[in-house]
Every structure is written in structure tokens, then in C-alpha cells.
Amino acid sequence: MPVLSYVSAPLPLLAGARFAPAVKVPGGVRPSGSRLTGSDLGLLLLVLDGAGMANAPNVMRLPQATITHALQRQHPGRIIAALKRLRGTDIMLGANVMPAVVAFDHVGRGTDPRYWDIKLDRRVVELVRASIRATQRIDIKTDDLRSLTSRYSFALYGRWLAMLAGEFPRAEEIGLRAKRPVERTIEVKVPVEILGEIFGYYTPLRQSEIERWLVTKAKTCAIGRELRDAGVAADIVPLREEATGRIDRLVIMLTAIGTKGLAYLQASQRHASILAGNRRERRLAREKAAI
């Protein structure tokens, strides 16, 4: 079987989807999707890559060899755990709330799967087929996909790819005036209230969680290094309220990285310059207010 080098994903999904743990229903059997990872979402994209060929009951067959080649994942127990988290996750896109995965099973001898039969929601299959008809698809390198283990890295990278295709959520509100920027670089200021639309989550994060998971300076934040491995230089810094010290918004700076590394150095210098300018502006504002 040929090695799968690219995964094709629906543009609307990358541009605007949010992922939320399914609401618990008395007597319900859906597992929890609260620990969803970027690797789980990479598996979802691999499923959606072939969902256009799903059969009548919306079941698509995914060979284990494809998962191994594309995502370098082959341990059945870990794949089952990922599919369970996806089964416990809702995709929120526009007015639709759709389960990421409805059911799954594997075909093979004993615990050694040869194929995974994955049942999808009808609306998810329709989304994939509509994106194919409208040619609203984005090809993602599987090498890049493997590096996105954090769900926040995955979502931000998806928004970045969608932005390069001319789509980005809340573009005017966050100061993104030019779509498809020639320089393949953006700087946006995102209010805390709409961070979920950029980072693909639904339940609001606490201030401490924003600090740990979304601010690239924090050692616990994976976004900077994971997007760098996927070809994007990322710097995210917080802007705080002067009175309370609470994070009011995040400045997100993204720049495409060249294969020779020079563009990354240029991007780093640019981002550092922006950060320094931001610090100077805030200092001058404080000094002016103290007069």
C-alpha cells in the first residue's frame, strides 16, 4: 500500500469547527471526550479523508495500514481509546452539533485489526461530500499532522491553513483585515470571550488554563514548538487589564517558515520586535496615566 503523504480536510471544518465533550444524558452510553487530544483530531481528519466514500449506513472502512503509515499509530488499545474520545466529542459547526464518531469496530484476527469500520453521523458525511463538490478542501501533510498532539495546536493550525485559503473566524473583530496575506504572516488580537472560536474549544477556559496552554512563553504550552514542527512560527502573548492583571486578550502572531530555516529566524525577529513594541506602548501608557 502506498504511503499516504497528505490528508484532505473540509475547509469549513478547519475554519470554524469547535470540539466539545458530549453532554451527559441519563442512561446515555457515550464516553467522555473531555481529554480529547490533537492526535485524536488528526485521526478524525484521516477518517474524514475517506468519508466521501462511506457506504449507505454512513460507515467508512479505514485500513490499519493507513493509520500506521499516516500517523505512525498501530497499537489497537490506543486507537480504541482515541476513537472512544472522538465518540464522546461533539463537532460544533454553525448551527450543527454532530458527534465526531457514532460507533466503530475492527475487522481482523483477535486483537490485531486489519480494518476499522467507523460509523459517522449523516451530517458529517454530507459536510465532507459538500466540500468535495464545492472544492473546499485543504491538503495537509501527514508529517505536519503528526506533530500536533495538543488540541489547541491542531485547531490554531487549522485556522491558519483556512486563513491562507481566505477563511478565518471573526476576522474583522480580531483585526484581520487582509485575507490570504502575501507575506504569509498575521498578527491578531483576540478577546478572551472569543478565544474558543480560534482555538476550537467550547467550554470557557479559566485564566490559569489560558496562561498554561495558550501563552507560548509558558513551558506547559505546546503550541509554539508543535506549530514550528508543522512549518509555522507562532508567538502568543497576553495583554492584561491594568486594574486587575487579568488577561483581557491574546496577541497571536503566526508566520510561515521556509525550508532553509532563514524565514524562521526572520519570523522570530519580527515577533520579538512586535513584543518589544507592545511592551513599550504599555509602559508609556502607564507613565502617562501616572502623570
N-end to C-end Cα span? 71 Å
Mean pLDDT: 87
Q: Rg from C-alpha positions?
A: 20 Å
* Helix content percent band: 40-55%
User: Based on helices, strands and strand pairing, what is the structural class?
Assistant: alpha+beta
What is the level-2 CATH architecture name of the largest domain?
Orthogonal Bundle
Counting structural domains, the number is 2
Report the major sheet.
3 strands, antiparallel
Strand/helix succession: EHEHEHHEEEEHEHHEHHHEEH
* CATH T-level fold name of the largest domain: Arc Repressor Mutant, subunit A
Query: What is the name of the CATH class of the largest domain?
Result: Mainly Alpha
Supply the CATH superfamily name of the largest domain: Winged helix-like DNA-binding domain superfamily/Winged helix DNA-binding domain
Tell me, briefly, the overall form.
elongated
Number of helices: 11
Query: Which band does the percent of strand residues land in?
Result: 15-25%
Total strand count, please?
11
What topology, given as strand order, has the largest sheet? Answer: 2-4-5
Low-confidence stretches: none
